[in-house]
Design brief:
By secondary structure, the protein is an alpha/beta fold. It has one domain: 3-Layer(aba) Sandwich (Rossmann fold), CATH 3.40.50.2300. It is built from 4 helices and 3 strands, in the order H-E-H-E-H-E-H. The protein starts with 15 loop residues before the first helix and ends in a 12-residue tail after the last helix.
């Protein structure tokens, strides 16, 4: 992310349960100033404790969270994985590049598209205040 030089505030979590804690401001993420609502979620399909498909379903069935765009990242390019992620409401499915240079270029492309080109519904995306 640092190498791609995107002008964003990045928040990283370690697993699916921690992501949900972050999104719902639970536990160590209770302070909304330290855990602001994301404008975009990069979701690894193979996360521990709660996998990406389970977390994606939780996000996209919640009326407060469902407008947050979710990009699913995976080492897989299996048709079943792609179908399931879009069926659950993912906004994009990207197979992770195998090289560091490829990863940096992918992140630059994601940043340009999602933060410079696309119009996002920022109004109403905030959690209950």
């Amino acid at each position: 992310m640092a190498e791609s030089q995107l002008p964003i505030n990045l928040h990283i979590v370690n697993n699916g349960e921690e992501l949900l804690d972050y999104l719902y401001n639970r536990g160590v993420y209770a302070d909304k100033n330290q855990a602001p609502s994301p404008g975009l979620i990069l979701l690894d399909l193979n996360m521990p404790t709660k996998n990406g498909l389970e977390v994606l379903q939780d996000i996209k069935t919640d009326p407060i969270l469902r407008n947050i765009p979710v990009i699913v990242l995976s080492t897989s390019d299996g048709k079943e994985d792609i179908y399931h992620t879009y069926n659950l409401g993912a906004n994009s499915f990207i197979t992770k590049p195998v090289t560091f240079v490829g990863l940096v270029e992918m992140m630059k492309s994601i940043g340009k598209y999602w933060f410079e080109i696309v119009q996002l519904p920022t109004e109403g995306m905030a959690r209950n205040q």
